[in-house]
Specification:
By secondary structure, this protein is α/β, with parallel strands linked by helices. The protein has 5 helices and 7 strands. Strand 5, helix 4 and strand 6 form a beta-alpha-beta unit. The protein binds ligand AR6.
Length: 169
Amino acid sequence: MGPRLQAVLGDITAELVDAIVNAANSRLAGGGGVDGAIHRAAGTAELHAACAELGRCPPGEAKATPGFRLRARWIIHTVGPVWSGGNRDEAAVLASCYRRSLAVADELGARSVAFPAISTGVYGYPPDQAAEVAVGTVGRADTEVQLVRLVAFDQATFDRYRDLGADPA
Ligand code: AR6
């Protein structure tokens, strides 16, 4: 049985879960969007240093740091695919982001995890299709994580998660 799935509208940095997921870049160098918000909320200097120790992270993979000043104990950094039309394995790479992030959560012993809508900002993945991948992949995941909160930053994404079967929260 997969984890319980909730749809949330808001800022992922405020989430009270064991781990939040960051939509990072493969250099784990920080950036804009949710990555920038997470760095600011966690503490830019500490998080930057912790990411530097991790080295690079290829698309579809995930690596963890402490959450520093966040309410969440850990940050799981994953790197989504850059959308380039859909014929470059974008869906498989995006699904891998969700699966590998949950595998890292299992290694950490995290039981609740919040995800942003990976790749749907700067990386250009069509939000409706990304939501299908998110809900489908998490719903089928073989994980000890009991609660997954899909955090939408806009109403349309929230509605889409709900329509795909996530419980509105
Ligand atoms: N809480 C929740 N979701 C958010 C927040 C927030 N505080 N801020 C933005 N979003 P993006 P990507 C949503 O661009 O497409 C960075 O520079 C946003 O509305 O953050 O994976 C990295 O360093 C969108 O729905 O990530 C990479 O270089 C979603 O988060 C690159 O961007 C993802 O948008 C990664 O691009």
